[in-house]
Write a structure and sequence with these properties.
- The protein is of the alpha/beta class.
- The protein has an eight-stranded mixed beta sheet with strand order 3-4-2-5-1-6-7-8, sandwiched between helices.
- Helix 9 links the parallel strand 7 and strand 8.
- Helix 1 packs across helix 12 and helix 6 runs parallel beside helix 7.
- The two termini are 16 Å apart.
- The site of magnesium ion (MG) has 4 residues, from helix 1.
Length: 259
């Protein structure tokens, strides 16, 4: 089981879009996949076609050990993957976890019990470097960082990289950066190309080859509760996420060969 956190402390950079579409694309490739929604906004939940308002249990109860993962997980009706859903309840977890033992290891604990159920677990992190994101980073083997190639993209990236280094040093020796994914990319924009080149200079092979273009069909899909890769399979954005899933699977397989 490969557990990847999709993280970037900035909001609106494409984390949830990447989490939902990658989950659906992996499922389409035959991978048993779980998507964990760690954002109280519940966008990954809704985008997967799971209604966040009528949940008996959510990731919140799982983190507080008031419910099991089995009882809280739902199936994405069209996506063919499982979702550990979230809603506004989760906003309280931040405070409630503070005084608890092993507060940053709660998600890891829940996932460890299900390590034979899935090939991939994707964790959609909230736009902060909070206790929730920390739970995501402690549970994960790697981080996928979606990046919008604009002027301020590199600003803040060092905070995330430093947080990942600290978690690696103190809490989770398995954690590494799997890669940076360029999203909402506009190839006609000179600045996008410059920022993209800078990313490759800094991070080399860590930058995924796949470029996800700006594509309105990806933005429309969530309001139908259907992942973009299924909503309009022919759209450029959908195809990019399919290519990205294949690239990720290839990367994972190359570690197995190296081991
Ligand atoms: P985050 O989870 O980082 O806050 P989202 O995935 O919710 O970011 O994306 C922010 C907004 O941008 C959403 O409205 C989403 O539909 C839109 N969006 C994300 N990726 C794309 C894309 N490749 N093309 C067009 N719109 C996109
Ligand atoms: Mg989000």
């Amino acid at each position: 089981m490969h557990i990847f956190a999709i993280a970037n402390q900035k909001g609106g950079v494409g984390k949830t879009t990447t989490a939902v579409n990658l989950a659906a694309a992996l499922a389409m490739s035959g991978q048993r996949t779980l998507l964990v929604d760690l954002d109280p906004q519940g966008n990954a939940t809704m985008g997967s076609g799971v209604e966040k308002r009528d949940l008996k249990a959510s990731v919140y109860q799982v983190l507080l050990q008031m419910a099991t993962l089995e009882s809280a997980r739902k199936r994405s009706p069209q996506g063919n993957y499982d979702v550990l859903p979230a809603n506004r309840d989760l906003a309280g977890a931040e405070v409630e976890l503070v005084d608890l033992d092993l507060r940053e290891m709660r998600l890891k604990g829940a996932l460890t019990q299900h390590k034979d159920d899935y090939d991939f677990v994707l964790i959609d992190c909230p736009p902060s470097l909070s206790m929730l994101t920390l739970n995501g980073l402690c549970a994960a083997h790697g981080v996928i960082i979606p990046m919008q190639c604009e002027y301020y993209a590199l600003e803040g990236l060092s905070d995330l990289v430093n947080t990942i280094k600290k978690v690696h040093a103190n809490l989770n020796r398995d954690l590494k950066i799997i890669g940076l994914l360029r999203v909402m990319f506009d190839p006609r924009n000179t600045l996008s190309n410059q920022v993209s080149d800078q990313l490759v200079q800094h991070f080399g092979d860590k930058v995924f080859k796949t470029l996800v273009p700006r594509n309105v069909r990806l933005a429309e899909a969530p309001s139908y509760g259907v992942p973009g890769v299924l909503f309009d399979k022919a759209a450029k954005g959908a195809q990019a996420y399919m290519t990205f899933a294949a690239e990720l699977i290839e990367r994972v397989n190359s570690w197995k060969e190296a081991a």
